Structure formats: structure tokens, C-alpha cells
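About this split. The held-out portion is used to measure sequence recovery: a designer receives only the C-alpha cells and must propose an amino acid at every position. Recovery is the fraction of positions where the proposal matches the reference. Here is one held-out target exactly as it appears in the evaluation file.
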């Protein structure tokens, strides 16, 4: 199975249990019955195991940055004196009630069309048919007992998905038997639910379990007091030294038929066959890629939807590794035309920490504060209107710098200073911006 990277639930459970036992855990292979979504590995209605809620931090105030720009500059008092005596009467513009009604109807129809385009009325999971097999689907999973390796509680592990379930919240129907490399235990009443089963089968006193392989009776520490030990010693002394000793044949578990487990390093790094796979969750889709297998360095992509049918995309979250620009996360919000990128600290990316871009309108760049080149920690570009920067720890005590552009530029007026801006493409003189104020 390790070579093929494929198998059924029994193959996955036995392999996982073998690895856990080799690492010192008290693990057992369990087989019984389970629902259809477990046996078919259908996670379409299950919660995504990866964190979905991630704050954008766009509105979070940086402790080193004053969020309100007005506090950084003092407003100059106005020199215009208003004239209170003179008033101009404004005439009410003429309008047509018919035009107003037609415009209102047009706006309502456009708003309704826009609402229907992004809204799904029947946002409910698809109705699944009743399982023809019922509760008789055979399945296999792993039981991890508490005690070894500082495990505090007993729980199940679903080997096909890696999900962890407690005994009380496990989705399985029943347990028929369980085994490990030492013994085999049979549940004498498989019709009981998991809540009614006592999984302390090694010290079973109620007759719920029956073992197959006879093991030597080894007393556990703390189970017998000093009085029981004294009584046992007295009974042995009364029998005498010449009494025949009772020996019991011990039936051991047969040795494993499979060779020693070997995990190929290349296949381990591939994670799955062909190095990529897609898994659907509730209102979510996750794409996995092997490291260094994609040109852009992507290793995981999480697509979050707003509906069960996965038609309206809320966010596309991509994780990267081994990139030259040290970008580790990119979040794209299609309906907001918004892009958020996170970077590791590196001079290759000019010590960018986070970049927020809104197409054609805004770009914010957060820098790591240990950037010692010029002390720049924040830059905001309001495309075509304004650009300002904030600094920290500079020798010249500079903390703020801003440039205001004039979007309504008259080409005949040459009083303002002309600079080149690669983002300003609003007028017919592409690449040119007019600077009207610098602070």
C-alpha cells in the first residue's frame, strides 16, 4: 500500500496502527460498521479541518502607526470670511414625474437583477437518497488507548482522512472486533452502540469481550495490595516444593506476512499519487500540491464558497513555499477586487510584510519594523490621488511624508509639478501625474 499509495480502509488502518505501535503508542485496529459518508470518504458535508476564519487585519491599527491621518498634520484656519447678509435664492429645478418613475423602475430592475446574479435562494445541501445497504457497511479504523506517550484520553482515528473522533462523538455504528500484534478481541454483542461499549477490554470483568490468544497472567502494578501477595505466598508454601507445576500452553499471534514497512522518501514528499489532489468540504474546496512540483511554488489552495453548491466564491487562499520573493500566502477576494499577500522577512521582497491591493484604487504596503535601510514601515497609494508613507527610528526624526496628486489636471496649466506614475492611467496622457501638494 505504501508503494501504490492506495488501498481500502483495512489497508490504511493496519498500516497506520503498525506505525503507531512502532512509535510506542497503544494502538489497535478496529472493524465494524460505519455510515456511507465514512466508508466512501465523502467529506462534502463535513467541516473543513483547516482554519477558515482568518482576520484580514486591514482595519487593525498598527501600534506604531497612527491610523487617523488628520492627527499627523495640523489643519490651517480658513481665511475666507463668510457673508451672512447676502443670500442667493436657489431655484427648484424642473423635473418630470414620468421620468422619475421610469428611472425608479429601471433602478429597481437593475438592483433586482444584480441581487439574483449573486444570490441563491435554495442554498441547502442536496437531498441524499436513503442508503440501500443501511447500517451494514463494513469499515475499519484505529483505536488509540490512553497511557502510552502521555495520551490523556482514548479516541478513534479515521485512517482514510486523518480525522480524530472521541468515543462519545464518533460517527461509527458498531464494533465487531479489534486486534493488534499481540491479541484479538471479539465483541460479544456487536448490536450495542459505541456509547454502551466499554473499551477497557484488557481488564474486562462484565464479559463483554472475548480474547482469542491466551496470554500469561501478568499482574499490573497497583492492582493487588500487599494482603493478596501475602496470601499467595502462604498458599505456595503449603503446596510444598514437590507439588507439580501447572504449565499452560500460550498461543501467540502469528507473525506478520508483510515485509518491514518502508516509506519511500520521494513518495512521502509527493503526499498523494501524481503529487496533487482535490478534496471537497462543506462550502469549501482544498487543492493539495507536492512541494516544488508547481512553477509558482503553491502547496495548498483553499477556495471558500458562500453556498453549498459552490458557485459563489468568497475567497481563494493560496499557500506557497520556496519562492524567490518569499511570499507565503495570497488571499484573493474576487467580488471585492481585492488581493492580500503575506511575505516572510527578506531583502529580496524589500522586507514587505503584507500588501493589500484593490484593483485600480488602492495599495497598502506594510513593512517589517526591523527594516533599517530607510525606516519605512508603511506606504499607502491612493491611485491617482494621494501617496503617503510612515517612518520609524530615522535619524532625521522623519515620521510622515505625503504627496497629493491632481486628478483633474488641465494640460494647458503648467504651474503644477509633473511626475511619472505607473499606476495613473485615468487621463489621455498615460504615465503622467500632476503633483499639487507635498508634505
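Reference sequence for scoring:
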Amino acid at each position: 500500500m505504501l508503494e501504490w499509495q492506495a488501498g481500502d480502509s483495512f489497508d490504511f488502518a493496519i498500516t497506520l496502527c503498525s506505525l503507531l505501535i512502532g512509535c510506542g503508542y497503544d494502538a489497535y485496529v478496529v472493524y465494524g460498521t460505519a455510515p456511507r459518508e465514512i466508508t466512501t470518504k465523502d467529506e462534502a458535508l463535513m467541516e473543513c479541518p483547516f482554519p477558515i476564519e482568518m482576520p484580514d487585519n486591514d482595519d487593525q491599527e498598527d501600534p506604531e502607526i497612527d491610523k487617523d491621518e488628520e492627527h499627523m498634520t495640523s489643519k490651517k484656519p480658513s481665511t475666507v470670511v463668510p457673508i451672512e447678509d447676502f443670500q442667493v435664492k436657489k431655484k427648484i429645478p424642473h423635473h418630470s414625474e414620468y421620468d422619475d418613475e421610469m428611472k425608479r423602475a429601471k433602478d429597481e430592475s437593475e438592483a433586482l437583477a444584480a441581487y439574483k446574479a449573486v444570490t441563491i435562494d435554495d442554498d441547502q445541501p442536496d437531498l441524499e437518497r436513503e442508503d440501500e445497504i443501511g447500517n451494514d457497511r463494513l469499515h475499519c479504523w484505529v483505536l488509540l488507548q490512553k497511557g502510552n506517550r502521555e495520551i490523556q484520553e482514548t479516541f478513534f482515528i479515521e485512517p482514510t482522512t486523518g480525522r480524530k473522533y472521541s468515543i462519545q462523538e464518533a460517527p461509527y455504528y458498531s464494533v465487531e472486533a479489534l486486534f493488534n500484534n499481540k491479541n484479538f478481541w471479539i465483541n460479544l454483542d456487536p448490536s450495542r452502540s459505541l456509547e454502551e461499549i466499554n473499551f477497557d477490554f484488557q481488564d474486562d470483568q462484565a464479559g463483554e469481550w472475548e480474547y482469542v490468544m491466551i496470554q500469561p497472567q501478568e499482574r499490573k502494578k497497583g492492582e493487588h495490595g500487599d494482603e493478596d501477595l501475602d496470601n499467595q505466598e502462604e498458599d505456595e508454601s503449603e503446596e510444598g516444593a514437590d507439588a507439580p507445576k501447572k504449565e499452560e500452553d500460550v498461543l501467540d499471534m502469528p507473525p506478520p506476512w508483510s515485509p518491514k514497512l518502508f516509506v519511500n522518501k520521494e513518495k512521502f514528499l509527493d503526499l498523494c499519487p501524481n503529487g496533487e489532489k482535490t478534496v471537497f468540504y462543506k462550502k469549501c474546496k482544498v487543492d493539495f500540491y507536492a512541494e516544488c512540483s508547481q512553477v509558482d511554488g503553491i502547496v495548498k489552495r483553499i477556495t471558500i464558497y458562500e453556498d453549498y453548491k459552490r458557485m459563489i466564491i468568497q475567497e481563494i487562499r493560496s499557500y506557497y513555499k520556496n519562492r524567490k520573493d518569499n511570499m507565503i500566502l495570497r488571499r484573493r477576494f474576487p467580488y471585492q477586487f481585492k488581493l492580500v499577500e503575506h511575505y516572510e522577512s527578506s531583502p529580496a521582497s524589500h522586507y514587505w510584510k503584507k500588501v493589500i491591493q484593490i484593483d485600480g484604487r488602492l495599495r497598502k504596503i506594510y513593512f517589517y519594523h526591523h527594516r533599517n535601510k530607510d525606516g519605512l514601515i508603511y506606504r499607502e497609494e491612493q491611485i491617482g490621488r494621494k501617496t503617503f508613507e510612515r517612518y520609524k527610528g530615522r535619524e532625521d526624526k522623519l515620521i510622515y511624508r505625503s504627496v497629493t496628486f491632481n486628478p483633474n489636471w488641465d494640460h494647458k496649466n503648467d504651474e503644477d509639478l509633473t511626475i511619472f506614475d505607473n499606476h495613473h492611467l485615468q487621463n489621455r496622457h498615460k504615465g503622467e501625474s500632476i503633483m499639487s501638494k507635498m508634505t
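Annotator remark: The CA atoms of residues 107 and 392 lie 49 Å apart.
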